[in-house]
From TrEMBL:
Residues 3-405 form the BRO1 domain. Gene3D superfamilies: alix/aip1 in complex with the ypdl late domain, alix/aip1 like domains. Residues 731-838 are annotated as: Disordered. InterPro entries: ALIX_V_dom, BRO1_dom, BRO1_sf. It comes from Schizophyllum amplum. The lineage of its organism: Eukaryota, Fungi, Dikarya, Basidiomycota, Agaricomycotina. GO terms for cellular component: endosome. This is BRO1-like domain-containing protein. Belongs to the palA/RIM20 family. Residues 736-749, 779-795, 817-827 have a biased composition (Pro residues). Residues 750-776 have a biased composition (Acidic residues).
């Protein structure tokens, strides 16, 4: 088993080259995908050969051929063409997932990594028991180191991995590649050290070679352990242990060889010091090898060398203690063993000069990606320049002028002086509304409806008053006959009369409001009727403002002509701007720099990856032909600025001259009158609609009021009839004689009774009946009791029955018939605030 290590391959996966390349060519080039189907098939074939896992020297040329074609492909296509490339990490375990990136640079880096791994595996597999085997192994490891150096300097700077470290190939980072580079270079130096030992070279040379090997192993370990983000987890633990063991082992070898040099020179103290340093390093190497479980071949080398150093150290220490007694310097004071770097990284010639690969370049018909991208960049810059600086610049200059003209109402106000001025569109819309609504007819119809409903309301109120008058007349007749003992009608119906007065006042005020609306309509009727005319007739009715007469009009004409001249000059400037825009657009449409770019790109090496930045001078030179349009737009803007100041000045003079023109004032008054007539029409219609709603609501209230009057009058009449019947019944009872007694006992004079209250006398049958009738009627509240008066002397009661008119019969005054129930709460009269005279 070899005591050297090798690097495993990055496992590759199938890539759908055909679909991705065809889609890109169809979307981004002028070529047809079918014309390049042979190139696509050859690409797939080369990748299958380069992606094998066998370890044989013949595979080197297949990988170099594929890499050369990748360089040619990348000179024609960008790195991202939508082709997903998948590779597993080099030191992947069974659970590791492949990393997939849409990047041809990732494909190229992985191919070179696998070529370096192939060189390392070929070197580790060589039989180094012979000088030729050692030379071949040293060459393979030098090539592996050269591949990693080339990868680090030429490929990784162009590779931009994903920001997420879980999606990035960490074995292709700078630290990882540098660590592997030093490891391969260390093994190449180790092969040379082995050959030097077989050739029995001087101990000094062998010591320097061993120091060089230890230095490379140390650099490798430092790069891997100090990487950020960390990459230690990518490597197997025994792999890192192997590198560390080798570092200490060759440090021990270097010190041991120097001890031999010092022993031969009879410097026994230094000999012992070098042996002490060698023993310390050998022990470290042995401890790490034992714990790190390195391969048995390395373990045997370390253990065997430790035994040799231990034996020589014991001998030298004994001899110096017993015989030489030489001073033993500290290890830190010993001369540093300078490394002698013999092995050099070797880059295959096909990498340094891909042209040595004689295969026909793929996609030779396509224009190089850098050149094609330069053309796209030029077209984008050209379109942006024409749009932003010429087209938008000219539009901005024109918009500044148009905005100022709109503010000054030009040229509309100037055109109004040259032709018949039409009526304002807003006034025409208002007239159309009145015409479609048949304004005067609508107003007359509303007025008729209001008068009709107002008459009905007055009739309802009169009917209610007639009901109250009839009841009052009936009450007065009854009082004249002496049959009534109740409140007179004018007191009992006070609440109803109060409501009547309120409703009467409301109707009076409403009539006044109706009259004010009528007067308003009479005042504006002619103007409202004008709004119903057709457009031509309405325009003829409005005075024109374009008539020229008087000194003011002549002054207006002078300013009008001056303003017209400057507006024509402004139109000339705008035509120049439009001409610049048209010429710039025509030039941009015909502008094609492909021929010049292709000619310039032909001067580059065939496999050179040409970047768009190489064409910057051509792009700047071609864009310079648009400068004349930029200067033209800027010059027009400056001229327009001065002209707009003159236009504003002459427009102000024109306005001042127009202020005193009588025709303008007359037209303004006519237009204002028509506009005000429209608003008065809307106001009158609104007032009439509100009045109509008011009278409708009032009709409901007056109907309820009339019904309340009927109910009250009916209750009063019923009460009156009840009282009359009761009085007639009492009168009949008084005229009927009482029955004669059967026998009259002798009349005895009663003894005088003591003064005081008389005994109650039995009530007659008629009085009892009256009292029962009184109980059936609801009694009014009793009047307040009069102040007590001194009781008169009571005369002796005569014998026999009292007379019919005597109060001893117990007749009581018949109470009045109950009045009407309490009147309901006063009804709130609706307000007619909207019917006030306006």
């Amino acid at each position: 088993m070899s005591n050297l290590v090798s690097i495993p391959f990055k496992k590759s996966y199938e890539a759908n080259i055909k679909d991705a390349v065809r889609q890109y060519i169809q979307d981004h080039t002028s070529s047809h995908p079918d014309a390049l189907r042979h190139d696509i098939a050859e690409w797939e074939k080369l990748r299958r050969v380069a992606s094998g896992s066998s370890v044989h020297v013949d595979r080197i040329q297949g990988i170099l051929r594929y890499h050369a074609q990748l360089l040619r492909i990348q000179s024609k296509l960008p790195a991202d063409i939508g082709l997903g490339v998948s590779y597993a990490p080099a030191f992947a375990n069974a659970s590791s997932l492949p990393i997939t990136l849409n990047d041809l640079t990732f494909e190229r880096a992985s191919v070179l990594f696998n070529l370096a791994a192939l060189y390392s595996q070929l070197g580790a597999a060589e039989d180094r028991s012979t000088v030729d085997g050692i030379k071949r192994a040293m060459a393979y490891f030098s090539n592996a180191a050269g591949l990693f150096a080339y990868l680090q300097s030429n490929v990784l700077p162009k590779f931009i991995p994903p920001a997420n470290e879980f999606e990035a190939p960490l074995d292709l980072t700078k630290d990882s590649v540098e660590g592997l580079h030093h490891a391969m270079l260390a093994q190449a130096e180790e092969c040379f050290w082995q050959k030097a030992k077989l050739d029995n070279m001087k101990n000094t040379i062998i010591a320097k070679l061993a120091s060089s090997v230890a230095k490379h192993y140390g650099d490798s370990l430092e790069s891997i352990r100090g990487a950020s983000p960390t990459i230690k987890h990518l490597f197997p633990s025994n792999w890192l242990s192997y590198i560390e063991v080798k570092q200490y082992h060759f440090e021990a070898v270097a010190h041991y060889r120097m001890s031999l040099v010092e022993g031969e020179a009879n410097r026994y103290g230094k000999e012992l010091s070098f042996l002490s340093e060698a023993l310390s390093a050998a022990k470290k190497a042995y401890d790490i090898a034992r714990r790190g479980r390195v391969v048995q071949a390395v373990m045997r080398d370390v253990q065997g060398f430790l035994d040799v150093v231990q034996k020589d150290f014991t001998r030298a220490e004994r001899d110096n203690d017993l015989i030489y007694h030489d001073y033993v310097p500290a290890g830190s004071s010993l001369t540093v063993i300078a490394p002698s770097h013999v092995a050099k990284p070797t880059v295959p010639r096909e990498l340094e000069n891909p042209g040595l690969v004689q295969d026909a370049p793929l996609f030779s018909e396509l224009l190089g990606w850098g050149a094609n991208e330069a053309i796209n960049i030029y077209n984008d810059r050209k379109e942006k320049l024409v749009k932003d600086m010429v087209l938008d610049g000219a539009a901005e200059v024109k918009e500044r002028a148009n905005s100022k003209l709109r503010e000054l109402h030009l040229p509309a106000s100037l055109d109004a002086l040259d032709q018949t001025v039409r009526l304002p569109p807003s006034l025409l819309r208002k007239a159309e509304e009145v015409r479609l609504e048949k304004g005067p007819e609508r107003i007359e119809s509303l007025m008729e409806d209001i008068q009709r409903i107002a008459g009905l309301d007055r009739k309802l109120l009169d009917e209610a008053m007639s009901i109250l008058d009839d009841e009052a007349e009936e009450d007065e007749n009854a009082r004249a006959e002496g049959h009534v003992h109740r409140l007179p009608s004018h007191e009992a119906n006070s609440d109803l009369m109060h409501k009547y007065e309120r409703y009467h006042n409301v109707l009076t005020q409403a009539a006044e409001s109706d009259e004010s609306v009528r007067q308003k309509y009479d005042e504006w009727e002619p103007s409202i009727v004008e709004l119903t005319w057709d457009e031509d007739r309405l325009e003829r009715s409005v005075p024109s403002s374009t008539a020229v007469s008087g000194r003011a009009s002549r002054e207006t004409e002078v300013h009008r002509r001056a303003l017209r001249v400057r507006l024509e000059q402004l139109d000339d400037i705008h035509r120049e701007l439009e001409n610049f825009v048209r010429r710039a657009q025509n030039l941009a449409d015909a502008d094609d720099i492909r021929a010049r770019v292709v000619k310039f790109a032909a001067g580059f090496a065939q496999l050179a990856e040409v970047q768009p930045a190489a064409f910057e001078d051509i792009l700047d030179d071609e864009l310079a032909k648009y400068d004349k349009f930029l200067h033209g737009v800027a010059e027009c803007g400056d001229r327009q600025q001065g002209l707009m100041e003159e236009i504003e000045y002459h427009n102000q003079l024109l306005l001042n001259s127009r202020k005193e023109d009588p025709s303008v004032k007359e037209r303004e008054r006519a237009l204002q009158s028509l506009d005000l007539a429209y608003h008065k029409y809307r106001e009158i219609v609104r007032n009439l609609e509100e009045g109509l709603n008011f009278y409708n609501e009032l009709s409901k209230m007056l109907t309820q009021f009339r019904e309340s009057c009927k109910m009250w009058s009916r209750e009063r009449s019923q009460g009156l009839h009840t009282m009359i019947q009761s009085m007639e019944k009492i009168s009949l009872q008084q005229r009927t004689p009482p029955p004669e007694p059967a026998a009259s006992p002798p009349v005895l004079e009663p003894e005088p009774e003591p003064e005081g209250e008389p005994e109650p006398e039995p009530e007659s049958e008629s009085a009892s009946e009256l009292e029962e009738e009184e109980e059936e009627q609801p009694k009014p509240p009793p009047p307040p009791a009069p102040a007590p008066a001194p009781a008169p002397a009571r005369a002796p009661k005569p014998r026999g029955l009292p007379s019919l008119t005597s109060g001893d019969w117990g007749f009581q005054e018949i109470p009045l018939a109950p009045g009407p129930p309490p009147a309901p709460a006063p009804v709130q009269t609706p307000r007619r605030s909207t019917r006030r005279q306006r």
